[in-house]
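Give me the fold.
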Amino acid sequence: MNVIEVSNLGKRYGKRWAIRDCSLSIPAGEVVALVGPNGAGKTTLLHCAVGLVEPSTGCAKVFGGLQAGSPEALARIAFVAQDAPLYKYLSVHAVIELTRNLNRSFDTNLVRERLDDLGIGLSQKVGKLSGGQQSQLALALALARHPDLLVLDEPLARLDPLARSEFMGVVMRAVAEEGLSVVLSSHVVSELERVASYLIVLNVGRVQIAGDIDSVTEDHVLLTGPIDEVDQVRESFDVVQILRGDRQARLLVRINGVADIGPLWESSSVSLEELILAYLRDPDSSAISSPMSGGSSQIREVRT
């Protein structure tokens, strides 16, 4: 079952398309890393996928066919935004009670247990909590609904390394204990590499790559070789990025299962960070066509 499935999805604000021609399927049970630069359309995609925003084109479905935003879908989804509205002048206890009254299914004991483990007192004012504690409170409130899908939009942006580690520790315990699916939008690649099993790279409103992280990284290699042999490589592989020196070139290529690279090129594995950065280079400023795709794909070319 696909926990999220979008087809030809687009959202326009005035004359500007935040996302366009977006199609992807996310299997259930994954911890999904959604990566992209500011303005790539990550938040818009998430809002459409969970039914908080009506798309301009296309459609979004969840849990194998439920319409995004339907009461049945919303009852099974918890969403934590970067700036969660936590009513900073209220006490933690008051925020818990308010959230309980707004949800038909809410596990108050679970919230209190999680906050007690974190040393967050119920009498404390929310506004007096640290950024990490506020994020933990928002996460505890979301998990208390026992969702099937947890969507986290940039929850790590304001947190220091220790707070990020503690936050993700709670998320991963919930994944292990309850088997929920998670979609996590973040710029912190080091954290994503540690916890995520599925990757989506979004840039200029379009999906650049999506798939199981192990499979995606294994299907890409770094090639180093003579600069005058670059065109031959482009005839055989999907080239994502070219870094040209005076005599040598370094290429990030998608091998599509092909093992024979040739004797002139030295091959090495690619890290998740290298892969993401290659796909995030602005395609509008450095794109050249790829013979493998009839001129439709985008190659990021950099001179070193």
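The CA atoms of residues 31 and 182 lie 5 Å apart.
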